[in-house]
Fold each of these.
Amino acid sequence: MIENSFNRRDFLKVLGWGSATVALSGCGNTSVEDGKEFVTSYVQTADYIIPSIGTYFNSTCAQCDAGCGIMGRVREGRVLKLEGNPKSSINNGKMCGLGQAGVQAHYNPDRIREPLLRNGDKGEAITWEKALGLINEKVGGVRAENVAFLTGGVSGHVKALLKNYLDALGSGHHYVYEAVAPSVMRAANKKAYGVEMPRLRMDKAKVILSFGADFLGAWISPVHFSQQYARFRKADNGKRGVLVQVESKMTLTGANADRWLVIRPGTEGIFALGLINALAAAGLSVPGDVAAVVKEYTTDRVSKDTGVPTEHIAKLAALLKERSPSLIIAGSAAEGYAHGSQNATAIALLNQVLGNVGKTVEGSSGIPFPQMAPTTGNRQALQILNDNMAQDKVKVLFSYGSNPVFTAPASMKLKENLKKVPFKVAFAHYMDETAVEADLVLPLNSALEDWGTVMPEYIADGAQLNIRQPLMEKLHPGTLGMGDILLALLKQRRPEEYKGYEDFYSYLRNAMVSNKGALGGANADDNTFWEAALSHGMVKLVGSPINISSHVSANGLVVPAPFVEDSTYPLHLIPAVSASLRDGRNANEPWLQESPDPLTTIVWDSWVEMHPKTAAKLGIVEGDIVEVASKSGAIKAQVYVFTGIHPDVISVPLGYGHEAMGRYAKGVGVNAFKILDPVFDKETGELAMHETRVKVSKAGQRVIIVKDEGPAGGNQMGRKIAVRMSSDKVNLSKEV
Amino acid sequence: MSITNLLENWSDFRQQHPSDDRPHREYKWAMSIDLDACTGCNACSVACYAENNLPVVGKEKFAHGHSHHWIRIERYWDNDGREFADQGAQFLPMLCQHCEAAPCETVCPVGATNHTADGLNSQVYNRCVGSRYCNANCPYKARYFNWYDYPTTDNVWPEPMNQQLNPDVTVRGKGVMEKCTFCVQRLTVAKSDARSEGRSVLDGEVQTACQQVCPTGAISFGNLVDPLAKVGKQWMTQQVELNKDKQAKDTAEEAAKLRGYRILEELRTYPSVMYLEQLRESAI
């Protein structure tokens, strides 16, 4: 460092370099010269840092629950970009836009930087010692059964520690809640196949028939399925797979289908049973009990009930019979009704009749460590917690990885009930809607500066335990990892057991290394095993395979008749799960807000999708602000008119309408979660997301929608831009 | 080099579009995009933001057409007046086509956009004076103008988000035109590494950010001069030739079995990006 007494600028002046002074100040370098910034010389270099050369470190994506392997490009101690880890069998080196935006969750300017304690309406910064001491005092001051822990889906060692902490408290109240989760499908799969999450082998299927599963967009493990889809479209034998999507509102997957069949909402089960009947009529052998159930579902009746033309039902049945194996998927659209379980069962039955089970629907790999297996969430858990809060049974509430104040329907009155809880602790990255309500907010490390292990819910190819490791130093000294916090809390309760672990890293390393035999490292020494795990970003596990069974019973399967018309609320509301925003937890990442919705190309706002016929009937044009009112509430948004939706349906995307969370999320769009009616799936008790009926009325204003669609809309105006041809014209096997 | 020398031998120094007697020598970067594999998911676009320091402009500026995405997904419907879009959408990733005879290059008053020896259409930011003639002349609307000084604009890169900026790529200033570079920073590193080892860049050694992220592998990128490069093989299989404005596909007998085409070829811009037509099953 040049000391201030001998200023470099003066030095240059002495040399007569007058112009250089001007140039230097023009470059904004003055602060360096004045000694306000320190410049570190690379003569004293840090390990693994070569100036201007990026190094890649493997870790695990935290933007959704799919658990893709990522590599972060680190240069001069900063993580700059994320790429897919080619060694991960989930994503094989690929990523999605949501995953790419992970760096914006890390560098986000709105992250909480120190523990905040409520003081009236404000949060007051306190030390971690004080915060953890306060928690100890509060949980010590109430009965164990009055402590509750609400989380999103958790897995790995954090889950194990969380369980240990709850055990140490003597409380078993761990509520796992995910606002957007295929819970009904999981339950139906368990019943039909004995496996909650069977492997879907799209690469082996010749036809995929999906009932509203947006597997290319936001469903379960989209990057994995997108790769499978690419192999399905360009099979080695040159025969291109055929995708048919049946749904009431077009998803990204629907937009890629060879045939998009629009269906009356809720009649997916009827359609599946009708297909079985049509297949039986075409000569497919169908078990007697199934034949008895489906015989009433004639093509004419099914066409009348579902609104799908008879010719398409016949074509689809012929295709499914001719090209085998196929793959039938029950998605969130089919399961989002009060009879969602019946729909899913009928669709599973179709899979079974077609003989796909065991061929394209495969068993899964077991997880050797059940204590680390992902706990999956459902809304029922939140309901129980909510009821307990309403009855003053919850005195201390912890919340981690979910934002129920934002995602719970208004009819649950969750925010009001939350106020009854005397002490609420939120572990959070942002001041989101739930953190705003908390008494103590504890700031978490970002996923790019934290330690952890992640077990994915959908197992792509043999189980793997994903490693999450810091890609760089913590940005803010005041944040902590969830593992570290839990360890500190456990030390308060069981000091003897945990005193050997200085931090979560040492706990994690010890837990992994001491189990290296089971983790496939029996012959390696501790360091080699651990270094290899970190270097690969994962440990491949050998789990005993779970075989799939096929025993969908047609007995007792009653799919209800289509909805009757409701004159007060004539339209069905489909809350759309978008690939970028999902349940809204990533809404404060500007890349996602500015990434156009693939179908409407709208950015930075909510919208109401509507069919031109419906719009004409209501006298609405694009850009009209309308009020969408259900029995449970009302929202206002701009209308987008297009032909990818059933005329009886309108759709509003989820994830928008934050009232807190940060500068990029707050005030953008409206929150469609709020107006969902409290209707539940009869078998599983899940919120039936697609059951809400609404009425739409003009609110008087009109705006110009901000979107990325050219002035001609979706029209090529006769120019040859995006061209399409018939698949029988080309032989894909001859292509490179 | 003296001025006299430069003036006398100007044609040796001037980079022009390769033609029959002056072919591309070592490298000719090109791309092919399979529209049957592209699902329109937008991952490429977000990856491009991350790699190339693109500013997020916000709703108001987006509404005024000031968006910056060097690769965008165009979405078209082919409804023929039908009630429903029952054959889905047509998605097309649109980026700078790196035309061999780029309409943007000829109109630049200061020569800020020009052709490189390895076939890129390059934009020299510190030469650009912001006349926007290139933008007006680009038939693909793939050029983006910096109406604002984004580094100092609120909430584009607030602390500490500016720490994410890629140091290999400049942050463009106000009044400068910008566009897709085929991730030239990655190409430069790969070329330099190869040169120091006394070889050419191998196929697959360098990927563009959009190609690397693409979940379906719809994007291929590589050196058209390299006989082993996948992209070259694809161009050859599809009988698309760089220096022609009418391809085999445009003749009646070949039209049926070839998928490869370039956009607006009749304008004779000779793009370096080939698209493969989307397919739809006729039996359904």
Note: The first helix of chain B runs from residue 3 to 8.
Amino acid sequence: MKLDSKIPEGPLAQKWDNYKAGQKLVNPANKRNLDIIVIGTGLAGASAAASFGEMGFKVKNFTIQDSPRRAHSIAAQGGINAAKNYPNDGDSVHRLFYDTVKGGDYRAREANVYRLAQVSNDIIDQCVAQGVPFAREYGGTLDNRSFGGAQVSRTFYAKGQTGQQLLIGAYQALMRQVNAGTVDMYTRTEIVDYVIVDGKARGVIARDLVTGEFSRHFGHAVVMATGGYGNTFFLSTNAMGSNGSAAIKAYQKGAAFANPCFAQIHPTCIPVHGEFQSKLTLMSESLRNDGRIWVPKKKEDAEAIRAGKKKATDLSEEERDYYLERRYPAFGNLVPRDVASRAAKERCDAGFGVGTTGLAVYLDFKTAIERLGEDTIRARYGNLFQMYEKIVDDNPYKEPMMIYPAIHYTMGGIWVDYELQTTVPGLFAAGEANFSDHGANRLGASALMQGLADGYFVLPYTIQNYLADDIRTPRMTGDEKEFVEAEAAAKAKFEKLLSIKGNRSVDSLHKELGLVMWDFVGMARNKKGLEEAIEKIAAIKKEFWTNVKIPGSGKGMNVELEKASRLADFITTGDLMARDALNREESCGGHFREEFQTEEGEALRQDDKFAYAACWEYQGEDKAPVMHKEDLTFEVVKVAQRNYK
Amino acid sequence: MDNNISLTLKVWRQNDAQDKGRFETYKLEAVSTDSSFLEMMDILNEQLIGEGKEPVAFDHDCREGICGMCSLYINGRPHGPDDDVTTCQLHMRKFKDGETITIEPWRSAGFPVIKDLIVNRSAFDEIIAAGGYTSISTGGVPDANAIPIPKDDADEAMDAASCIGCGACVATCKNGSAMLFVSAKVSHLALLPQGRVEAARRAKAMVSKMDELGFGNCTNTGACEVECPKGISISNIARLNREFLAAKLQD
Ligand SMILES: Cc1cc2nc3c(=O)[nH]c(=O)nc-3n(C[C@H](O)[C@H](O)[C@H](O)COP(=O)(O)OP(=O)(O)OC[C@H]3O[C@@H](n4cnc5c(N)ncnc54)[C@H](O)[C@@H]3O)c2cc1C
Ligand code: SF4
Ligand code: FES
């Protein structure tokens, strides 16, 4: 496998311009004869499909939801970054670039991140022109706020519903193209495999989730924008349908999977409360601006609280341990996500956790309410407090909130070069599904930026460079042997699943996988645990393929069958994550290996050995994958140990 | 703290669009009142799978009240007995021990049943495709701060834009009208200078698409506003009517 990152020549700031100056174009008459398949209608997929349609290509766009507007991107709350520097607080393209590389713990490719920062400003212009109702100042200009890991205010937002509004903007642009006839929309349709002809991606096999029928679709190029694989853990902040199947299928067809172990754990989620729990709800990071995080100083108090004999409000100031303020006086409660998450785990593991399970810490607004008044706090966080109260049935104005870390985002994903092309020619990956830009840790409000950058401003250029060589390739009918074989293989997998007729429900197996992931491949990892995890995952895989129970048939809608097919791929993802975590003998960003920490318990990178992206190549079912390295070189950024003390 | 209740569920079962459909009754024991309504449905499905029966199909995704996918008609109300929430945000503490709960799909001419509790809402996408956008393409747009927008207008546009496209307004309307949904989109865009340009044309195109797709007429009963989980105001319908009249006058 050859990993050519195709980074353009020239100084960092000119690379993208140089690329665009030399890139091949497709003339309008030829665009009509070129088909592009886009999988996914989240921010990355919808923005790409709409843009391709406007450019004149013929687009087929697929989503598993009933409408493109419901892609998981809709759930993003906080905001989207851009280097506009409207508040005149010293922001610039360079600073956004720098913060992103540093925040990612120096495990991202400089050239890609710089381009991301460059196009960030165009995104905001584009969205405003679409009618995205961003928050505004009284003077009528756009408002900004600050987010973790940055010293400037560069985050644009639309109430607590930024993802929703950005997605609706992209969705509307997409529906305009559907109306114009350039985009064919396939809802409730799942892509179950890719078709490779002469080494190039030339199409997909789809399964209609309503009828259960399979179909073949040709494209001169294929873009996958299918989101992240956080649901490998079963419990995460992702939507229930979010899955990693399209990525695993790409991997099995020859696309390298990069840095699978880089998963982000968000520190402020509502804690798990019972076995029946189906997902975890995020409480926005913005709460850490005013909330103070603590646990009891004395174990007896923590025990009494867990037993229901004491309440948080019974403890005096002296009896509370504001551990983030204690450990990180400079950043306090605003340390980055990975640092805050690990600190919470450390306290709970040491026996100071609260809640009935002991797996929770307090997020307390008492000081803020005393200082600013309840009304100000209500104006800032009212909707979040209401959401908390609906779920937990506790009043956070009176009792401190309880929070605990949860899986939230996956930085790893399908390896792409500068053009967002995978190691399979003609197969591109965009949004959370690819591995680019965020390194080992993503900063808040940067995922939305990346998804839209990929779809609106990067792929429209780079895909032309690829398609320009394809203008003489005629459309295929779908009857070619590669299509027929791929469909037969996909069908066989679903028939196999239905034939097992075992005793275990899909969810029960998924929960089991999730627990293994959380215990051994979660917030803190070590060699022994990871080796154990690989064995346990293999056992779950065996149990799944011999004992899963799927009622009903392959005809018509069968939700359990859909879930089973995705779980088969989550099991593969889980194994890959564990292997990658085992290989990476250092701590960086979201990946913390207990063997590699400083005396104070901080993450310790091993730059001399691990300044690379680990790219895994599939070798066949039940064979260990092979790892290839893309070495990361830093020409502009000065690599340093992150310090938030 | 933890409290368990027992329930009798009367659930609508329908194999596909052609099937006539019927209610089935199920008993559930020891459901924690801390669980959400959809988690209660998960528990029911685990029980059915254990008995070798087909689980109940229902739509859901984000489970935090934003994607608009969940859609149950619970004891005669879209999204159930709590106010200002979607079904996924409804919790079992709203129900009593021993209660019988009736669960049906959205019922409306515009939303045919696909299976059990799942309906087809793609008519909403068709209405948006008819004109629910600004006609601009990627790139070549002015700087985001080029046109100042009064904060009040931006906030009002945001309120209208917060519609999640769930369809509860249609499901609760005795006429099966989609006016609240359409008016939310027309208002959102008409309130902003970027969308103002095409406001009249948009209103006309969206309303005629809505009529074509078999949604009923609005007779101002106001039921939609009461059941909307996002508090979309019926005043948007008045704005839509103004835009629509303006378009008619231009004809
Ligand atoms: C609760 C929450 C809050 C967040 N808040 C923020 C925030 O404030 N700021 C920020 O920058 N980021 C935030 N993020 C992260 C961000 O929302 C996501 O990373 C981003 O939206 C991902 O977009 P995407 O387009 O890559 O994928 P998604 O939005 O996940 O879309 C995936 C698409 O692929 C489709 N799909 C998947 N598999 C298949 C298949 N096999 N066949 C066909 N279609 C398929 C799905 O139907 C969907 O349309 C948040 C994430 C969560 C969970
Ligand atoms: S107007 Fe309200 S009820 Fe109707 S679709 Fe929108 S959010 Fe749902
Ligand atoms: S599941 Fe998304 S709104 Fe209910």
Note: Chain A is about 40% helix and 15% strand.
